[in-house]
Write a structure and sequence with these properties.
It contains 5 helices and 2 strands. With 157 residues, it is mostly helical.
Length: 157
Amino acid sequence: MEDQSKFKQQVRAIYRMFVGLFVLFAITAIGVLYLISNPDLFEKSIPDTAYVEIVEEDDYDKIENGIHVRTGLIEAEGLMMVVNNCTNCHSAKLVTQNRMNKERWISTIRWMQETQNLWDLGPNEDIIVDYLVTNYPPAKKGRREILKNIEWYQLND
């Protein structure tokens, strides 16, 4: 008798489990059907606003106030040759901070060709060196100028 009551309890437990699974299945099916019929359920409503398209100017060779905007190099004959050959490998800032004379620019180019895989510039080398020497010559370094027209005063202890 005891075995029969245990069997009935097990059958009821299995029955409850199947009913519970059926209820979960039914709820899931109803939810899926509702989402299929209303796909915008979870999307936030965005008010109708006018969108303004911003068009950026893609003028890489633009020059303003005598300066090539993209690189910061001075506009002069040979500028685009320098831009095309020098700024492929490094920043134009490296060019502008290394002010050198003709011999030093040529030796720097030779060093880059020997150690940095710079290609042979051919006849463009003279144009590039002339541009660099003309626009980025060596800067005189040294002490600052002597102060002039200064009214000195006595410090009080």
